[in-house]
Write a structure and sequence with these properties.
single chain, mainly alpha, two-stranded antiparallel ribbon, 6 strands, Na/ntran_symport, serotonin binding
């Protein structure tokens, strides 16, 4: 048995006992809470940067600015802040506290909370796999752009390239250019015809061949990922000092440059001009809830994994507040970076800002912004740093997503994998690379869209709803509060308890019901996804969520006893050694 630290702690470390016990010792009892065999963060900042790097991703740059102006500009900040305060941040705090207290990954943690819900851990790992299948492909696109940027004239500046068509229209630096519904900018044709080559695919039924250029880019991305994760948090904690901080340097440079462009003020006004009547629309509140949820990222198992390597008495409450604020402020500032450039483009085209702000999602980063950069002074420099920012933003989130799988599986099977981390990480990276091959085809962008919409969207929200319900109602809010008290020395306030018990689950249920009642048609590049592909999407979504009821049935069937006894065993957390209980006076073993 490895050597174990003994730490003097006040609080309840397992809490399966009764709520009130008498006769506690007034002196603290040495409690074994951490083993040397488990990795630890070298520095507190390694952890904070890892969490910030995971939470602040490409979606902060492309999704928030678009959703903000689409849903009322400055008025959208009201539902956004409310949803963050009452929904997103409490769930974020909950996951950090759970991971730090139980010190284990997303699968094995459930034996300490509510064993019958262990299928949630398996579902989380499958969703994380789906994310790795498409998210790293988007980073590979950015790497392709990065390589293409090393040129005195950026290749998406003109219409004189082999991939351009007669519809290519370059309006920068030219007068009396006619822009029609069939017109395509050089940047759009570079993205769709040279990077993706979607014109060589008729849709999901014929995705075409794998593009070797993108496969090489993806191979380089996964190579970086492997050597950042193979030794655990000791290595990834060092890498994030670059990948998590560099985007902020670049954002500052781009914001200053954008503010000096002609027409920039038009974009800022368009971004923040409040449309108060929008607050009466239900869709605005749904978008605010979904945005804050996917921005902070509870439910992906990443926060559980990263916080499980913290010291037991780390102030996870302060970490939750700080990292949430950084995340939300980054989204807000990114809006200025994007919309100053959109205002500049509107000035150049001599049109309104809304006419150039139609692109959303990846198109905003791969068409609109590169198009503006191409026509700036020093375009090569700004293109290089912009795509370096995109690559580093993406890598941080990939580190977190794969670490969630690694921690969860290794903690579930420690005897088999504890001394084989390098091999396990290599196998995982190979699986992710092979699973990504379909996204590298000519129609790969359609596969990316399908996986993003169905592999992650509704399933992860439903899973977090079950997680919040299991912790608050089955594990018990008082027991969970006592766990936090044992780490921090004080019990969470009434606000947090009410949010965990009622408001946050209602927040998640609201998103789920709204998405089911108002399904949106799935389209990309004027391609409307056929009905059969939507069915495939639902199957992909079900393939992760189904493990929750499957494990429930398995647990009930294989647990001996009557149905009542089986339910009692399946709902009761397993005790850990030493089993202890506490009141405000200290710690005492439960007999």
């Amino acid at each position: 048995m490895p050597h174990q630290e003994q730490v003097m702690v006040h609080g309840n470390l397992c809490a399966p006992g009764p709520p009130n016990n008498a006769g506690y010792n007034s002196n603290p009892v040495p409690v074994i809470i951490q083993t040397e065999s488990r990795d630890k963060w070298s520095k507190k900042m390694d952890f904070l940067l890892s969490v910030i790097g995971f939470a602040v991703d490409l979606g902060n740059v492309w999704r928030f600015p678009y959703i903000c102006y689409q849903n009322g500009g400055g008025a959208f900040l009201i539902p956004y802040v409310l949803m963050a305060v009452f929904g997103g941040v409490p769930l974020f705090y909950m996951e950090l506290a759970l991971g730090q207290f139980h010190r284990t990954g997303a699968i094995s943690i459930w034996k300490h909370i509510c064993p019958i819900f262990k299928g949630i851990g398996f579902a989380i790992c499958i969703i994380a796999l789906y994310v790795s299948f498409y998210y790293n492909t988007i980073i590979a696109w950015a790497l392709f752009y990065f390589y293409s940027s090393f040129s005195s004239t950026l290749p998406w500046t003109s219409c004189d390239n082999a991939w351009n068509t007669e519809n290519c229209t370059n309006y920068f630096g030219k007068d009396n250019v006619t822009w029609t519904n069939y017109s395509r900018s050089p940047a759009e044709e570079f993205y769709t015809r040279n990077v993706l080559a979607v014109h060589e695919s008729s849709g999901l039924g014929d995705v075409g061949y794998i593009r070797w250029q993108l496969m090489l880019c993806l191979f380089l991305i996964f190579t970086i990922v492997y050597f950042s994760l193979w030794k655990g948090v000791k290595t990834s904690g060092k890498v994030v000092w670059v990948t998590a901080t560099l985007p902020y340097v670049v954002l500052l440079i781009l914001m200053i440059r954008g503010a000096t462009l002609p027409g920039a003020w038009k974009g800022v006004v368009f971004y923040l001009n409040p449309k108060w009547e929008k607050l009466k629309e239900t869709s605005v509140w749904v978008d605010a809830a979904a945005q804050i949820f996917f921005s902070l990222g509870p439910g992906f198992g990443v926060l559980l994994a990263l916080s499980s390597y913290n010291p037991f008495n780390n102030n996870c409450y302060r970490d939750a507040i700080v990292t949430s604020l950084v995340n939300c402020l980054t989204s807000f500032v990114s809006g200025f970076v994007i919309f100053t450039v959109l205002g500049y483009m509107a000035e150049q085209r001599n049109v309104n800002v809304e006419d150039v702000a139609r692109d959303k999602g990846p198109s905003l980063l791969f068409i609109t912004y590169p198009e503006a950069i191409a026509n700036m002074v020093g375009s090569t420099f700004f293109a290089i740093i912009f795509f370096v920012m995109m690559i580093t933003l993406g890598l941080d989130s990939t580190f977190g997503g794969l670490e969630a799988i690694i921690t969860a599986v290794m903690d579930e099977y420690p005897d088999t994998l504890s001394h084989r981390r390098e091999l396990f990480v290599l196998g995982l990276v190979v699986v992710c690379f092979l699973g990504s091959l379909s996204t590298l085809t000519n129609g790969g962008a359609y596969v990316v869209k399908l996986l993003e919409e169905f592999g992650v969207g509704s399933p992860i929200i439903a899973i977090v709803f079950l997680e919040a319900t299991a912790v608050s109602w089955f594990y018990g809010i008082n027991r969970f509060s006592n766990d936090i008290k044992s780490m921090l020395g004080y019990t969470p306030g009434l606000f947090w308890k009410v949010c965990w018990v009622a408001i946050s689950p209602a927040f998640l249920a609201y998103i789920i019901i709204s998405s089911l009642l108002n399904p949106q048609p799935l389209t990309l590049f004027d391609y409307e996804f056929p009905d059969w592909s939507i069915t495939v999407g639902y199957i992909i979504g079900a393939s992760s969520f189904m493990w929750i009821p499957i494990y429930m049935v398995y647990k009930l069937v294989w647990t001996p006893g009557s149905l009542k006894q089986r339910l009692a065993v399946c709902l009761r957390p397993e005790r850990t050694l030493p089993d202890i209980h506490t009141d405000s006076m200290g710690l005492s073993p439960i007999p």
